[in-house]
């Protein structure tokens, strides 16, 4: 049996407890060795609940553990930079929850330091690892829907009553563009294989939620006259869908970013003038696939499908979206 990657978890967030930790434990290449919280009692309770051998009452203690090879960072967004850098300096590989940082400059610095210390960095945008997205890319490349003319995407939920949620704290990197907008934006970049040129975004900044963007709607301009129109929000009815519109047909992706089980609806629906068909590629846990891919990169040197620079490029788009929403202007994206 091949060796298991030894993981430490920096934080006890819901996404860590409900998704990422179980996924690492279900994977064939990973083991969760330790978890840390600023409260030793909380770390001990979660460790007992999830059958994790070690618990620590500080993040410093966890990254000082010599047996831990990689860390997952699900901390509030404003803490990602500090703990990515500190983990890298301790020789730990880093899987950092999205968004990787508060802006492109921060993410670029994080990635550069990881390179300097010889550790792998990846942003935890888990949906991208599901094979249905490779299938979408195949359909586009085949020409079945013709030339892509536009992409539409959305990701919304309603958690507005949870006023103490860190996603509603401006200084902690709250807001719907950071939390949900990264999904349709990264997906459009992935499907098109291009970087956008400019953005125009309108947003609802809520005084009830520390002034963060609770809803945003935007236009992302790509080369060749192609655009992504999207909306994201944390104060709206829930949905997560994308549509890729071509000259000869279109692809629908219902529940495009969600967790999946055997009761899922069609993952891909293709419409052309002659046919409409449904495809189900596989019922796969994207979190498990993400853990497996990261472990293979660390243990075997297998190249990651999404290079760290992809993170910086996505953050440049988010930066421009926020600037556009605040200034009510079209923003041209500065290239590296």
UniProtKB/TrEMBL annotation:
GO terms of molecular function: nucleotide binding; oxidoreductase activity
Top-level division of the source organism's lineage: Bacteria
Pfam families: GFO_IDH_MocA, GFO_IDH_MocA_C3
Segments forming domain Gfo/Idh/MocA-like oxidoreductase N-terminal: 6-122
Residue span, GFO/IDH/MocA-like oxidoreductase domain: 133-252
Keywords in alphabetical order: Oxidoreductase
Record-stated family: Belongs to the Gfo/Idh/MocA family.
PANTHER family xrefs: OXIDOREDUCTASES, TRANS-1,2-DIHYDROBENZENE-1,2-DIOL DEHYDROGENASE
Name of the protein: Dehydrogenase
């Amino acid at each position: 049996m091949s060796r298991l990657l030894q993981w430490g978890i920096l934080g006890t967030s819901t996404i860590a407890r409900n998704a990422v930790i179980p996924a690492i434990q279900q994977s064939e290449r990973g083991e969760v060795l330790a978890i840390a919280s600023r409260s030793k009692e909380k770390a001990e309770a979660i460790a007992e609940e999830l059958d994790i051998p070690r618990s620590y009452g500080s993040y410093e203690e966890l990254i000082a553990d010599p047996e831990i090879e990689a860390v997952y960072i699900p901390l509030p967004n404003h803490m990602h930079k500090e703990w990515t850098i500190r983990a890298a300096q301790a020789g730990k590989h880093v899987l950092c929850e999205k968004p990787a940082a508060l802006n492109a400059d921060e993410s670029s610095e994080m990635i550069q330091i990881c390179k300097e210390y010889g550790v792998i960095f990846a942003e935890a945008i888990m949906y991208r690892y599901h094979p249905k997205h490779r299938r979408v890319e195949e359909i586009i490349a085949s020409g079945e829907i013709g030339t892509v003319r536009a992409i539409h995407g959305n990701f919304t939920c309603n958690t507005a009553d949870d006023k103490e949620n860190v996603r509603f704290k401006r200084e902690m990197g709250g807001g719907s563009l950071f939390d949900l907008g990264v999904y349709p934006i990264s997906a459009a970049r992935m499907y098109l294989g291009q970087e956008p040129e400019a953005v125009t975004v309108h947003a609802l900044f809520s005084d009830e939620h520390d002034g963060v963007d609770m809803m945003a709607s935007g236009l992302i301009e790509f080369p060749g006259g192609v655009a992504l129109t999207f909306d994201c929000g944390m104060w709206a009815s829930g949905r997560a869908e994308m549509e890729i519109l071509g000259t000869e047909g279109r692809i629908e992706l219902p529940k495009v970013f969600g967790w999946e089980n055997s009761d899922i609806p069609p993952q891909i629906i293709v419409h052309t003038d002659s046919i409409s068909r449904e495809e189900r590629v596989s019922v796969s846990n994207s979190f498990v696939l993400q853990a497996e891919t990261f472990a293979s990169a660390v243990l075997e040197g297998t190249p990651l499908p999404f290079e760290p620079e992809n993170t910086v490029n996505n953050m440049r788009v988010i930066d421009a979206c926020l600037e556009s929403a605040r200034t009510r202007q079209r923003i041209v994206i500065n290239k590296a």
